[in-house]
Automatic annotation (TrEMBL):
InterPro entries: Beta-lactam-related, Beta-lactam/transpept-like, PIN-like_dom_sf, PIN_Pae0151-like. Pfam families: Beta-lactamase. It comes from Fodinibius salsisoli. Coiled coil: none annotated. GO terms for molecular function: hydrolase activity. It comes from the Bacteria. The keyword Hydrolase applies. This is Serine hydrolase. Residues 100-207 form the Beta-lactamase-related domain. Keywords: Hydrolase.
Length: 260
């Protein structure tokens, strides 16, 4: 049995570079299970292909029918109470907790704003901050493939992990991350959230106090940063596969240096 996400299922019906890999997985184990939410995500994927005129309506309707028939007996509801109890009472890793928190955040943003999560970020963060090289996996922001650097985090994957190669990707699949950016845009983002332009005074202090952060992706870049209340900041941007323990030693040394 394999619990699959919508991206895997969609790869069997929409043009992408994952289909060969997906059929190999299916051949190895065809007992796939999914939460009921996959149907909404699958429709969202197809709607993107329709609006970009990659698929015709008749093809999208046929894909919907075939995919729903394919997964018909392997769909299961997820008990919300059990999920919340697990989050509050389990030994889930920090990544697991971040993934759940991200999902809740996105759901709240979309319900309250009436926008997609991606559109909300563009309108309220990226455009006001002047960030022109940041977006979600599955997007390319009008940039050519050659403009994207191949990420080389602790789990380097190479060219297949370049964001445009993902194709349209639901936020539930991406989890707490699933975005691309560059150093200049990241600096603009930090400056924006610490400025008076975004948050009320009651929230600003959370971003203006002493903070030490390690951001990035297991398969992309790593960004170590320290920010002091007086505005002094240190950034260490890394995009080359290295020994994780060595990176941690360097970040600890920088942290101690700035604290002294």
């Amino acid at each position: 049995m394999i619990v699959v996400d919508t991206n895997v299922i969609a790869s069997m019906w929409v043009p992408n570079d994952m289909d060969e890999w997906v059929y190999k997985v299916l051949k190895k184990d065809d007992d796939w299970v999914v939460p009921l939410l996959w149907r909404s995500e699958f429709r969202n994927v197809l709607s993107i292909y329709l609006r970009k005129e990659i698929l015709e309506l008749s093809v999208a309707l046929q894909a919907t029918e075939e995919a729903e028939q394919f997964m018909d007996t392997n769909e299961f509801e997820v008990n919300s109470t059990q999920v919340m109890i697990l989050v509050s009472d389990s030994s889930c890793s920090g990544y697991d907790c971040a993934f759940v928190a991200f999902g809740v955040l996105v759901a709240v943003v979309e319900l309250v704003s009436g926008q997609t999560y991606e559109d909300f970020l563009i309108q309220h963060f990226f455009e006001p901050a002047g960030m022109s090289h940041t977006g979600s996996y599955g997007q390319h922001g009008g940039h050519a493939l050659r403009e994207f650097t191949v990420g080389a985090g602790p789990e380097i994957i190479g060219l297949p992990n370049i964001p445009p190669n993902w194709g349209p990707t639901p936020w539930l699949v991406k989890g707490s991350g699933g975005m691309y950016s560059n150093l200049d845009d990241l600096l603009k983002f930090y400056h924006f959230v610490r400025s008076d332009q975004l948050l009320d005074a009651r929230y600003q202090h959370f971003f203006r106090q002493l903070s030490v952060n390690l951001d990035g992706s297991m398969r992309g870049f790593e960004l170590f940063s320290i920010a002091k209340p007086n505005g002094d900041t240190v950034y260490l941007f890394i995009n080359n596969k290295g020994e994780t323990g060595a990176l941690r030693k360097v970040s600890q040394a920088l942290e101690q240096f700035m604290m002294d």
